[in-house]
Amino acid sequence: MTHVRRFLPLAGCALLGCVLLALFAPGGLLRRDEPPERARWSPYGLSVFIDDAQRYLRRQPDDAPAWAELGGAYLEQARRTGDVTYYGKAQGAFQRSLRLSPGEPDIDAVIGMGSLANARHDFAGGLRWGERARRAAPYRWPLYGVLTDAYLELGAYDKAERELRRMLDGRPGLASFTRAARLQHLRGRADHARAALERAREIAADPAEYAFCLWQVGELAWNEGDPHRALDAYTQALAADPGHAPSLAGAARAQQALGRTTEALRGYAAAVARAPSFVVEYGELLEHLGNRAEARREYTLFTAQTKLLAANGVSDDLAAGRYEADHGDPAAAVRLLRKEWERRRSVEVADALGWALHRVGRPAEAARYAALADRLGGHNALFAYHRGEIERALGHPASARAHWSRALSLNPYFSFDGPAKARAALAETA
User: Fold this and answer.
1) Where are the TPR repeats (predicted)?
2) Looking at CB atoms within 10 Å, which of 122, 193, 276, 364 has the fewest?
C-alpha cells in the first residue's frame, strides 16, 4: 500500500504532463488558434525550408516578411539547380510581400526584386531596385551586392568597386568576398582574387557555398592555363557538393585539356543534366571530336533552352549571340549583340560583338570593340585570340602574332580548337 501511495503522485504528474502536452503543444487543443511558428531558412536544407514556409504561409498568408524569405529561397534554389521556373515563383513571393506592406515595403522583398532582376539579366532593373532599397534602408548591406552585380554587368566597374567597398566595410562576408574576387580578376589581379576567395572559403556556411568558392578558385587556375590546379579545385568542390554543375563542367574541361577525353565526356553529360547552360560547351567538345550529329543535338537543346529562358523572363542575348556567331547565323549574332551592348557595356559583350562583326566581314568595326574589351580588363586568352584574328583580317600580321602569342601564354588550353588554330596561324605568318 505504501508503494501505491508513493506511486500515485508520480502517476498524477505524468498524467498532468500528458494533458498539458495535449493542450499546449504545437497543434494542441488550446493552441490551434495561435499562429504557427515560422519556418527558419537553413542552407543545409533549402528544399525542406521551402516546404515548411509554404505550409506556414497557407495558415498565415498575410506575413510579408515570410513571403520575402520564401522568395529569397526560391532564388537560391534557382541558382543551385539551374531551374529558371523558380524565377517566376520568386517574383510572385516578392510581389506578395510588397502588396502586404504598401506603406513601408518589406526591405528584403525590395532587395530580392533587385537580385531577381539581375538573375534575369535586367541589370538596369537591378540598379533601380537596389537604389530603392538604399533610399529606404541604407544600412541593409545585401542591397550593395545587388548594386555591385548590376554595375559589374553594365560595365561600370569603378561604380561597382565603390558599392562593393561599402558592402565590405559594412558586412565583410562570403557574398562580398566572392564579388571582390570577380572584380579583382577583371582588373587582372589574380593574387588578390585568390586571397578574397580564400577568405570566402573560410567562412562558407554550407557545402554549396564551399563548392561555389572552390569552383571560382578553379576558374582562376583555368584562366591562368593550369588545368592540374584547376582540376584539383573542381574536385574539391565536387567532394563538398557532388551535384555542383559549374564544377562538373570545369572538371570536364580540365580533363579534356589533360587528354582524359572519356572522363571529360562523362563530366559534361552530368553537368548538362543538372544545368543546360553548358550544352554549347559540350556540343563544341563533341564537334571537336568529330561527332557532329551529337553536337547538333546539343545545339538544338540550346535553342530550346533559350526559348524557355525567355518564357521565364530571362533575356540572354550574350549567350545567344555567341552561339550564333560560332555555330549559327553571324548576322543574327550582330543584331543580338548590338541590343545587348545598348543594355550593358561589359567586357564580355564588347568581345562578343567584336567577334560577331569579324564573322560577318567587318574587321574595322570589330577591331574597335576588341580593343575596348582589352581596355575594360579582358585578361582572357579567348579574347586575345579573337583580337589576333581580327588584326589578321585587317592586314596587320605583326599585331595578329602578338595577340595570338598572348592568348597562348595566358592559357594554352583556352578552347577546344582555338589553341591549335593560333599555333597554325603563328607558323603561317612566321
Assistant:
1) 211-244
2) 364
**What would the mean pLDDT of 146-170 be, rounded to a whole number?**
94
Percentage, residues of the chain above pLDDT 70:
90
CA distance 10 to 15: 9
Nearest partner of 232 among 209, 254, 210, judged by Cα: 254
pLDDT digits (tens, 9 = 90+) for 62-94: 999 999 999 999 999 888 887 888 999 999 999
HSE of 83, CA atoms in CB hemisphere, 13 A: 10
* pLDDT beyond 50 at 188: yes
Q: In whole angstroms, give the CA distance from residue 251 to residue 322.
A: 22
Q: Is CATH 1.10.260.40 the right assignment for the domain spanning 45-171?
A: no
Q: Please state the pTM of the whole predicted model.
A: 0.84
Q: Are 356 and 337 in contact (CB under 8 A)?
A: yes
Cα dihedral 348, 351, 356, 357, rounded to 10, equals 140
Burial of 59 (0-12, 13-18, 19+ CB in 10 A): exposed
- Using alpha carbons, list the distances in angstroms from residue 69 to 50, 96, 398: 9, 11, 57
> Structural domain boundaries of the chain?
45-171, 342-430
What is the residue-averaged pLDDT of the chain? 89
- As a whole number of angstroms, the distance between CA 343 and CA 151 comes to 11
CATH number assigned to the domain covering 342-430:
1.25.40.10
* pLDDT tens for each residue of 99-138: 999 888 999 999 999 999 999 999 999 999 999 999 999 9
